[in-house]
């Protein structure tokens, strides 16, 4: 076990599958106990992820909550504290996309993405800061995106939400740094997923051509950077955004 997240408690939102699951498993392998958060509809998948974490010898609980609703988020943090007595790491991973060209984008497509991706990050961070301030210690890692830096046609809502997450990260880092709480973000580029697995060969080749390393990233590669930011090795790093994109944005 490395001196990363041993004996810590980590809460990961949107953690039943994909990137959130990879982060949860990575932190568990480094010795953290895990709170898996997701919406109620995903509870079965979340429980399966929890079983994988328990098989690693760590504690894991599933707590359902909608990160866009303040009362549910506050209850989520209270339940996590009741279960483990502390909260050391928050990973704001929950996010959605509702892609459309701006002229065709509906109010609902705009608002739902901003609510989940940006408001959800705000609500979870605000609630988690209460125990972290008392502990005078904590790590908050926000999952942004390179789209929040470079933009992307058809994703004005997503770009705005992730750009907001980046600005939010920097502001909060300045507010709480003196209390021993570090706030950083990672900005993944194109990462392997069920969606990218379905790309036609020609489309995949075109995508790879945009990336100097010539391939897509893996969820595990993102998770390892999150683990670093959650660890003691990152103790002099705050307010930063780390691109994990194979050199696509440089």
What labels describe this entry?
250 residues; alpha/beta; Rossmann fold; seven-stranded parallel β-sheet
Short synopsis of the structure:
By secondary structure, this protein is α/β, with parallel strands linked by helices. Helix content is 48%, strand content 15%. It is built from nine helices and seven strands, in the order βαβαβαβαβααβαααβ.
Task: Chart the SSEs and their pairings.
Elements: E1 9-12, H1 18-29, E2 33-38, H2 43-55, E3 60-64, H3 70-84, E4 89-92, H4 107-135, E5 138-143, H5 147-150, H6 156-176, E6 181-188, H7 194-197, H8 201-209, H9 219-230, E7 241-244
Parallel strand pairs: 1-2, 1-4, 2-3, 4-5, 5-6, 6-7
Helix pairs in contact: 1-9, 3-4, 4-6
- The averaged pLDDT comes out at 95
The largest sheet, given as strand count, sense and whether it forms a barrel, is: 7 strands, parallel
- Order of adjacent strands in the largest pleated sheet: 3-2-1-4-5-6-7
**Gyration radius, to the nearest Å?**
17 Å
Predict the CATH topology. Answer: Rossmann fold
The strand count comes to 7
Distance between the termini: 34 Å
Query: What is the CATH first-level class name?
Result: Alpha Beta
Beta-strand share of residues? 5-15%
What letter string, H or E per element, gives the SSE order? Answer: EHEHEHEHEHHEHHHE
Subunit arrangement of the protein = single chain
- Number of helical elements: 9
């Amino acid at each position: 076990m490395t001196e990363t997240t041993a004996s810590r408690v980590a809460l990961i939102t949107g953690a039943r599958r994909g990137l959130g699951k990879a982060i949860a498993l990575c932190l568990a392998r480094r010795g953290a106990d895990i709170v898996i958060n997701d919406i109620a509809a995903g509870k079965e998948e979340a429980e399966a992820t929890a079983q994988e974490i328990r098989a690693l010898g760590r504690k894991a609980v599933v707590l359902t909550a909608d990160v866009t609703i303040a009362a549910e988020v506050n209850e989520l943090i209270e339940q996590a504290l009741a279960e483990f007595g502390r909260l050391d790491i928050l990973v704001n991973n929950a996010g959605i996309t509702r892609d459309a060209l701006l002229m065709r984008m509906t109010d609902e497509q705009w608002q739902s993405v901003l609510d989940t991706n940006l408001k959800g990050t705000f609500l979870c961070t605000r609630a988690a800061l209460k125990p972290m301030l008392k502990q005078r210690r904590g790590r908050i890692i926000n999952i942004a995106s390179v789209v929040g830096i470079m933009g992307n046609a058809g994703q004005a809502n997503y770009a705005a939400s992730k750009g907001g997450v980046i600005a939010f990260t920097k502001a909060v880092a300045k507010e709480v740094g003196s209390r021993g709480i570090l706030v950083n973000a990672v900005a993944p580029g194109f990462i392997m997923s069920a969606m990218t697995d379905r790309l036609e060969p020609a489309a995949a080749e075109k995508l790879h051509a945009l990336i100097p390393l010539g391939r897509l990233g893996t969820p595990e590669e993102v998770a390892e950077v999150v683990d670093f930011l959650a660890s003691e090795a990152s103790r002099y790093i705050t307010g930063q955004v780390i691109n994990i994109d194979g050199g696509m944005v440089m």
